[in-house]
Amino acid sequence: MSKNDIYNIKKVHLVNLVVLTILELTLSLLALKGCNTRLGLLCFATNAIFTAISIGLYFSPIKDEIKALFFTSIPIVVSVFFILTDSITVICSHYMIFLSIAMIALYFNKNLIKFYQVIINILFLTLISVKGLSLLDSSTKNVNIWSFIQIIVCINFVLILLYFLTKWGNQLIESAEEKEKISTELADKLNNSMKEIQKNSDILNTNLIMFNKNISSSKEAISNVNNAISDISDGINDQSEDLKSINEKMNNSSENIKKSQIVSDKVSTQSAEMNEQIEQGHERIDDMNKQMEIIYQSVSNSNATITELQCSIEEINKFLDVITAISAQTNMLALNAAIEAARAGEHGKGFAVVADEVRKLAENSSDTVNDINKIITSIKDKTSLVVEKSHIGEEAVKSGIELISKVKSTFDIIKKAASANSEYLSQNAEMNSRTTTEFMMILEKINKIADISQNQAAAIEEISATMETTTEDITSINNSVDELKNLSESLNKMSK
């Protein structure tokens, strides 16, 4: 911002124009009244010309400094004109010079004052050289050069004082300009700050409204959470009681399962022992079957041997019959030989002896054959009985083999059933063992769940207490937000 923006020089031009117009009009009237008609008209015409010049200067586009010099020079020119024409008194012209000094001082420009001081000194020196001391006062004889010097000195001192006044005033104006500039910058910054404050206050108000809504929603949500936590706490307490009851029943069931496991183990052990005994019985039946086969083979072989023996006895009987026949024939031959020996007499005695011995031998052979025949007959009878018994034994052995085969089949079925039963019992024992293990794991997990439920119940109680504290804090925050909203609205009003 320039000094002309602060100090309105156009307004000074207007004031000086008005002063000059009034002055020239007054001087014209005074000249018409106090002077002769010709001189009065000349003064009037001169003042009219200067008035027109003043008005033209005011509306001319020349620089303000040049325009100021022209405005302040007009009273001096008019004064010189009146002095030269003796239209007004010297003192009146001096006042007009001081009027021009006052007019130049209105511009508050030290350069104009310096330039004006040079012009006024040159003008006075020129006038004093042309007009002489009568310039001061033609009616007074006491006027001398010292009077002129006094006037010049006074005028110069006045101009010097006006110069310093203008200089210091300009310094004040420049300082005021700097301060105004700083104040303007501060005002702009303050205005921008106030706009930012207003903008931020609006944003803050909007955010506070949203925050207030969110706080209200959070408060309502926390209330719902508190209700839900209360319901959960009741549910957990009920669950804890149910878990305690389940735990007690599971403990009882665990004891029963352990007992069942012991019984199952015993049954499995006994089943294994029974399987071993069945296996041993099966092996024994196999051995018995083998022995019966051997016995059957032996009986069959014995039966065959006895049959062969019967055949041999029959053959022996045949041989004995032959021997008996031979003995009979031998006996007949011996008898015939004895008869012939008897017939031979002495010559036949030896032959008779032999015949007698042969007869005896034949009789002995016949007796032996008879004895053998009796024995063979007895053996044959016994052999027939043995054969009969052997057939009965063979049939019995066959029946025994069939019975043992049936018993073996039955034992096979029993063995398979016992083996399947043992396998089922083993699987059952294993399942019982797994069930017991899983049951114990379930029991352990139930105990853990019960502990967790108790911990959850305690944690939920703490959460409930914390939620109550949070609700109180949110209420306090809500109150603080309301206060902050009121402060923001007040700040917003202040920024406007």
Fold and architecture overview:
This protein is mainly α. It folds into 2 domains: about 5-145, no CATH class; about 255-470, Orthogonal Bundle (Helix Hairpins), CATH 1.10.287.950. About 95% of the residues lie in helices and about 0% in strands. α4 (about 65-85) packs antiparallel against α5 (about 90-105) and α6 (about 110-130) packs antiparallel against α7 (about 145-345). It is rod-shaped, with a radius of gyration of 86 Å. About 15% of the residues are buried.
Per CATH, the architecture of the largest domain is Orthogonal Bundle
**Residue share in β-strands:** under 5%
Per CATH, the class of the largest domain reads Mainly Alpha
The CATH superfamily label of the largest domain reads: Methyl-accepting chemotaxis protein
CATH fold-level name of the largest domain: Helix Hairpins
> How many DSSP-defined strands?
0
Average pLDDT works out at: 72
Low-confidence stretches: 1-6
Note the topology.
Elements: H1 3-6, H2 9-34, H3 37-59, H4 64-85, H5 90-106, H6 110-131, H7 145-344, H8 349-495
Helix pairs in contact: 2-3, 2-4, 3-4, 4-5, 4-6, 6-7, 7-8
Task: State the gist of this model.
Helices cover 93% and strands 0% of the residues. It has 496 residues and is mainly α.
